[in-house]
Amino acid sequence: MNARPASVAAIPVGKILTSASTVIVLLLGTALLAGCGGKKTSASGPPPPMPVTVVKVQPTDVSLTGEWVGTLDGYVNAQIQPQASGYLIKQNYKEGAQVTKGQVLFEIDPRPFQAALDQAKGQLAQAKGQVQQAQAQLRLAEINVNRNTPLAEARAIAQSQLDNDTQQKAQSEAAVQSARASEAAAEAAVANAELNLGFTHVRSLITGIAGQATVQVGNLVSTQSVLTSVSQLDPIKAYFSISDSEYLALTERAKHKGGDLLENASAIPLTLTLSNGENFPQKGRIAFVDRQMNAQTGAIRIAAAFPNPRNLLRPGQFGRIKAETEVRHDALLIPQVAVQEFQGLQQVYVAGADGKAHVETVTLGPQIGTNWVVNSGVSPGALVIVDNLQKLREGASINAHEQPNVAAAATINAAGR
Fold first, then answer.
1. Is there a contact between 123 and 184 (Cβ–Cβ < 8 Å)?
2. Which residues form the domain of 297?
């Protein structure tokens, strides 16, 4: 019983004091840290409003444009084929150069055709001699009939002799007619031979740019051979296809201007954008509308004609053709940079009257330059936020700064066009 009190009494008093002081120091440190933390928390307040730029949405009239891919082709494309067969002896044009209507492009060996012409001329001369001979015989027969008619009436000669003279006259008249027919046939043969001889000079039937020759001098060509092609390039055609709805929109626009797409084609000017991104300076017009809609693609083919001075544009080039298809009144425009996509929805931030940002889901229409036409989701007068979008959230405090509205900018751009 006396052992336990003896062991307790044996603990040194200094160790007990040291342990107590350590606990006190730890408690004081914890209290100090808690005090410092409390002061830091109480010093922080709400974050300052986010500075943003807003655009005021106002209704305006905008022109909606359609854009299609077009393929350029010659206004007229002519394949040059000979109308005579023979050896090609000469090429009279420079490939890729401008040629005029009636210009000789190739020459075919004319000697066989010249020989045929000479032979035809000889046959014509022979036919003319036969005509002269038949005419001389006719004149003799007429003399005999005229002389023997009164003699036969006076019974100075036999009636049979007069009958023979009359028959001879009829035969002479028939011989003259036959000889003249032979002469006409010979004249036709000469004309045909001259035409064939002329065909040895292969000419261009249109004015345009001549392409590369497909045959060489010395080749044997026939009427089935294609020697080259010539394309009229001023004006030049651009073929493109538009949808059924776009076709109806263009037709309606032309009707408001007082005609259809062809009668009033100048009322719908077309712009051609080249592959380098530059707009061709000449405006085009609709020159051809196909007779039917393609049932498989739901599109109709249209050809536009563009003036092409100096033949800058060439067949086979591609470009983008634009035309104003509709004027939409009181349309609402918002900048493209203001639109964000979230889970397949198009959304914008709008500055509210409470000084906070609010998310609105919008339905977009056509694109107008750097803006979108909004079909629904925002109302006139709304302040759409266009910057710091990644830092915003629903209900965030903002400090809005307004810039010129989209409608005014769109009007300025439209006036500039």
1. no
2. 67-74+231-327
pTM beyond 0.70, yes or no: no
In a domain, 360, yes or no: yes
pLDDT in tens, 241-257: 999 888 888 888 777 76
Q: Report CA-CA distances (Å) from 245 to 2, 286, 326, 367, 369.
A: 113, 17, 11, 17, 22
DSSP string, 43-110: H--PPPPEEEEEEE---EEEEEEEEEEEEEEEEEEEEE--SS-EEEEEE-S-TTSEE-TT-EEEEE--
Are 313 and 341 contained in the same domain? no
Enumerate long-range contacts of 342-346, CB under 8 Å, 24 or more apart. 346/377
- Pairing label, strands 299-306, 228-243: antiparallel
Same domain, 299 and 363: no
Last residue of a domain, which of 263, 297, 327? 327
| Three-class DSSP category at 278 | coil
Which of residues 327, 346, 362 is at a domain's end? 327
Using one digit for the tens of pLDDT, what is the confidence trace for 325-364? 777 888 899 999 999 988 889 999 999 989 999 999 999 9
Same domain (yes/no): 359, 278 = no
For residue 178, give the H/E element and its range.
helix 159-198
Q: How many domains does one find in the chain?
A: 3
Of the two residues 110 and 155, the one the predictor is more confident about is 110
Largest CA distance in the chain: 211
Q: Do 187 and 107 share a domain, yes or no?
A: yes
List the structure tokens of 112.
Answer: 């066989």
Tell whether the model's pLDDT for residue 42 goes beyond 50.
no
Residues 315 and 289 in one domain: yes
Spatial distance between the Cα atoms of 308 and 318, rounded to a whole number of angstroms: 15
- Are both 132 and 191 inside the same structural domain? yes
pLDDT at 197 over 90: yes
